[in-house]
Amino acid sequence: MLLALMTFTAIAQSPETKLEVGAQSTSLTVFQPEFFGDLTQPGFGGRVTYNFTRAIAADAEVNFFPQKNGFFIGEGRAIQGQFGVKVGKRFEKFGVFAKARPGFLTIDDAFTLNPNNPIGGATLPISIQRKTLFTTDVGGVLEFYPGKRTIVRFDGGDTIIRYGPEFDFLNFPETQAKTKHNFQFTAGVSFRIGEIDTTDVTTTSSNADSGTPRYEVGTQFTSLSVQPPRALCSFLCFFPPNRPVETEPGFGGRFTFNFTSYLGADAEMNWFTRDHGTFTGPGGHIFQGQFGPKVGKRFERWGFFGKARPGFVGFTKTLTLVGTHPFNFGGIPTIQGDFEVKTRLYPSFDFGGVIEFYVSRRVMTRMDFGDTIIRYGEYAVPGFPVSMPIFRRPPETRHNFQFNAGIGFRF
């Protein structure tokens, strides 16, 4: 009797299709073993989902992180795989799920504990080779269904990484296994494969309403891969002049006014969560504002646009030259700088593309990809008292990849 009831329930709750295939962008903030600190890495990948019922599915995804030096000291790039279950509730236009998926993170050319590694006649306790770590992905999933075959999906959660015995720079020669919790956000688009059960899918044409709503207000997650300007330090500098890309996670809001179905004015503000101090250049927290046009084509269920938006990128802790004063150093007259740590704004220009999906007349999702160009002004730090009392770096322009994913409301 119980088996028959379970079978009937599964049939009654059968999904529109069994199989979903999609592509995605992801951002993984890794809190590494103590010496290495935390790093955020952008990546991309694919996903396959098999729906047993409308509430239960098997989920598998693989992501590739292209930046070197992303997870450990070395030249490593990383691949991530997670395989597990997704359980929740599916409504007409959206679904909410929980997920639990074991998997792995594998990094090439990473520092690895190796007590018997001979180099040049000596024995060092480390070697550089591929390293694979056990992971578990626990979190939530929010899905939107703008069409019968299209799914827009946002994942947020904790990717737990189990590190084996590691070479510990702080407590040499002690090594021990560690478990770290790491925030991961993923946004992507999937497509249902197979026949659609039209009795479960509403075919209303509300999204196709000829009148485009004038106003849009939304919130978003953002990932900005910052190419820093050349490092400039007082006296000795322990960093190379050309520093590696530093990817910053953040969140923000957006407002759009649509003049027509193909032309809109866009404004967004973002705040980035990490504080980088003031050691080698503009530091502290980063914040951003971009304001400009969005032009493209809007279809029934989705739209594609180009954007070109001037604005600014600010840093809350930047050593700033605010004046000078004469100073006598051992009988030698010099001009010394007056410095303060201040918030500083730099002009920026956001150029890229936008893809929108219209879940209903009032609800939409949006993803942005593009180049955020930052023009850094002259930067100065204290120098040697006599020969060069002020070190200066001329203005520089840097190109920075940025990805946004969010939800909006239209009215």
Q: How would you describe this structure to a colleague?
A:
It is built from one helix and 18 strands. The chain has 411 residues and is an all-beta fold. The chain folds into two domains: 190 residues, Porin (Beta Barrel); 207 residues, Porin (Beta Barrel). The strands form three sheets. Strands 1-2-3-4-5-6-7-8 form an eight-stranded antiparallel beta barrel. Strands 9-10-11-12-13-14-15-18 form an eight-stranded antiparallel beta barrel. The protein has a two-stranded antiparallel sheet with strand order 16-17. A hairpin with a 4-residue loop joins strand 2 and strand 3. The radius of gyration is 26 Å and the shape is flat. The N terminus is likely disordered.
Number of domains: 2
Task: Please estimate the helix content.
Answer: under 10%
Instruction: Categorize the overall geometry.
Output: flat
Provide the CATH top-level class of the largest domain: Mainly Beta
Mean of the pLDDT scores? Answer: 85
Taken in chain order, the helices and strands follow as HEEEEEEEEEEEEEEEEEE
The quaternary state of the protein chains shown equals single chain
For the sheet with most strands, the description reads: 8 strands, antiparallel, barrel
Tally the beta strands.
18
Structural class: mainly beta
Number of helices: 1
Using the CA coordinates, give the radius of gyration: 26 Å
Q: What would the CATH topology of the largest domain be?
A: Porin
Do you know the CATH architecture of the largest domain? Beta Barrel
Distance between the termini: 51 Å
